[in-house]
Write a structure and sequence with these properties.
The chain is mainly α. The chain has one domain. 77% of the residues lie in helices and 0% in strands. Helix 5 packs across helix 9, helix 6 (89-112) packs parallel to helix 14 and helix 12 packs antiparallel against helix 14 (271-290). It is globular, with a radius of gyration of 18 Å. The protein starts with a helix and ends with a helix.
């Protein structure tokens, strides 16, 4: 069952990413992020069934970490969604995955004095090289802006800085509280943080929340629902086998995302994209197995 839940987790997250991209490219990105995460208030409720009752009484003691993680999550989602206007989703996913792992390793080295072995440094170089090359390759998809590839790269860099820092706080919450409760509070809280950003933008003369029809919102709900499979599958898999292998399997979801994006959005890639993507994923998988 370990392998089953690990692959279910990977596929759930990959499917949600691809399906949600359709609405990220149609709706203003902060609004899209709000609608995506507001669905978690309902869709993630089944996860709370597994949460010990005493964990709820401890939530209030972690409000500073929760608030910071939610705002960082909303900010990273904003920049990630915006990057999908300029880059194919397969490329974007591979680059942000590579950067996330690199920043995670650097955080461990800086704050926890974790030793970087020779092979870890080799994997870092491969991952970084693959990510940088991949993010600078142009694409021919007519619905994207190929002239803004560098803008997409910089947006993904900002995404990884914020997301990795948010993961640091969420990991702390998961250890102190409960993984399922932490996931629910964080994902739902991102919706609140996104609404705060939107409100602040409107107060300074920018756009407010983009309204969508009930039909569109219901479609977003079904697009996001596979995240429940991803989160539940991950939580079950790490109780049955090594975290490193689960993380390595999750990294291969980039290839599922790429395949689905070709089918749904006609985002075909060149052989250069696939070589750079393969190098990035190989480096990420190796890093996660070594850690």
């Amino acid at each position: 069952m370990f392998w089953f839940w690990a692959f279910i987790s990977m596929f759930g997250y990959a499917l949600q990413n691809v399906l949600m991209t359709r609405y990220v490219r149609k709706i203003e990105v902060l609004s899209a992020g709000f609608y995506r995460n507001i669905t978690f208030f309902v869709s993630f409720l089944p996860l709370l069934y597994f949460v010990p009752s005493d964990s709820y009484s401890m939530v209030h003691t972690f409000w500073p970490e929760i608030i910071l993680a939610c705002f960082l999550g909303a900010g990273s989602q904003w920049t990630r969604f915006l990057s999908l206007r300029y880059l194919p989703i397969g490329t974007s996913s591979a680059v942000v995955l590579g950067f996330n792992v690199l920043f995670s390793v650097l955080l461990g080295w800086v704050f926890f004095s974790e030793v970087l072995s020779f092979w870890v440094l080799v994997c870092i170089f491969i991952t970084l090289a693959g990510s940088v090359i991949l993010s600078t390759l142009k694409n021919d998809a007519p619905h994207l802006e190929p002239a803004s590839v560098i803008k997409g790269f910089l947006l993904l860099l900002a995404t990884s800085v914020m997301l990795t820092t948010a993961f640091f706080f969420v990991a702390k919450l998961s250890r102190e509280l409960d993984p399922m409760l932490s996931a629910y509070v964080w994902e739902s809280g991102i919706a609140v943080a996104a609404l705060v950003f939107i409100t602040g933008r409107k107060l300074f003369g920018g756009a407010g929340l983009e309204r969508v029809s009930l039909k569109t919102f219901s479609k977003i709900f079904w697009c996001v629902l596979p995240t429940l499979l991803g989160t539940a599958g991950f939580a079950l898999a790490i109780t049955l086998g090594p975290l490193g292998i689960v993380s390595a399997i999750s990294a291969t979801g980039v290839f599922v995302i790429t395949g689905l994006s070709i089918l749904l959005y006609k985002e075909t890639l060149t052989y250069r994209h696939y070589i750079a993507m393969g190098a990035t994923i190989a480096g990420v998988v190796a890093l996660r197995l070594l850690s």
